[in-house]
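Ticket #4471: structure output looks truncated?

Reporter: J.K.
Steps to reproduce: submitted the chain below (250 residues) through the standard prediction queue, then opened the result file.
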Amino acid sequence: MRVLIVEDETAAYENMVDMLAEIDPEINVIGNTESIKQTIKWLNSNPSPDLILMDIHLSDGSAFSIFEYVKVETPIIFTTAYDEYAIEAFRVNSIDYILKPIKIEDLERALNKFSKLTQGDLFQYIAQLTNLAGNKSYIDKLLIPIHDKLFPLDLKDVSFIYSTDRNITIYTKDGHEYPYAKPLDHIIKLLDPSDFIRANKQFIVARSSVKNITIWFDNRLLVTMDIEPPERIYISKNSASEFKNWVVSK
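Returned output as attached by the reporter:
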């Protein structure tokens, strides 16, 4: 069985590979993608795998949006931390899922369920994947609380969004700073992935504000923005290629 793993955490990916080998040594992991864009590109450039194991929370947004851009003709087993909306969506669409942290017995159960699907089940199963995509739209403003009012901040004016401890701050291109109540995991899902990317655990950056990129000594990237961030913005070695492609994409 040929399997594609869509997972943006290296440790989680390696753990899944080990568990698959223990469950069935004949399972062949033929690829690993870490983002929506990588997954779309992979699916458009390679023969369909037999099965996809997919984390729904990726570095550049919800994996559900993949189905808006590419026709997926492969059954998917989703992996997710507890997410009430996601689990309800899986139940409605009869799609299997595994809660994180993944246990080998849960992965084996899901694989056994997949192996028992008839050809008719597979067709129905795949057809229902499109129901998860919905009509995705992205916001163009964030409402910023200032005293007793809400100020609509245009996203084209945002340079980056920074998280430290429990504090979130939005930095604009003209150097202003605005506190914000929602975490980065929530914010990134609202933003157009062609304009914004989750650079790392602390930063969401705007493509229009990236001024240059330095290749760092350990193959990480150091990103220079149009305004000075409160700390250096590094892109991990695993995400470097995707980030460079994103910066120059249309």
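Triage note (M.O.): checked the attachment and the full token line is present. The longest strand covers residues 158-164.
Status: closed, working as intended.
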